[in-house]
Model the fold of this input.
Amino acid sequence: MGFKYRQKVVHGHPTSNFTPSYKVARIPKSSSKYRKIYIPDDATKQFLRSHIPTLEAKLSTLDSSNVNYAFVKGKNAVLNALQHIGFNYTLSLDLVDFFDSVSAEHIEGVLSDEIIRDCFVEGAPRQGLPTSPLIASLAFMRVDDQIIAALQKFGIEFSYTRYADDLTFSFNERRDAGKIKFVAQQIIQSNGFALNHTKTRLQCVNNGRVIITGVAVDREGLYPTRKTKKKLRAASHQGNLAAARGLGEWAKCKLPKELVKSDG
Done:
């Protein structure tokens, strides 16, 4: 499908000698719509990366719920899936235009005006910028906390994690699925975000392994999916480890051996 360059954005700062520059790519989605990716030039990328230590420190200090497993040192998709072992049902929700939905109001009092000025383009931390994943996670912390608090009031036994814009809930009673989705949707919408309902998925472990952020899970452990194993073989034959991103996560994730299963 590829992408097309659409325009060049020069994002001037009245109080800075540096002028960030980006190209905007339009990547086709499965529908007739396009996803806009902001591609910074090398100087801009380096400039933005200078803010990453501050953003990481903020997230480490302020993220009390500790449910986000994306773009955080020591966490990955495999550890995200690990939190859902042993439950009967898994509900997966997806956010629409996660980065583009973040506004300055979401991180008011959390980030300095300087960081907002440097890392926001046309009012949001756009997809493609190295600082955007951390900023989006900082913006969504309040939503995570509210979802957890609301579900605890219902007395539901559940596990909740988030991998960037992928929200995963695991629980044991089928009747809780609608309740969890309703509560999560109301809180998400009240905070200025929205769900992509076409990607909502309810899975039951009785029907086979459930797939969570590309990892197969059942009541006993984790399994690499066929897709992951195919990438592994391809990466091995081609010598291209970067192409098999999920494999690196399996390698980095030192899980107890009894939890990582194999089909042989």
The first strand starts at residue 4 and ends at 10. Residues 132-153 form the longest helix (22 residues).
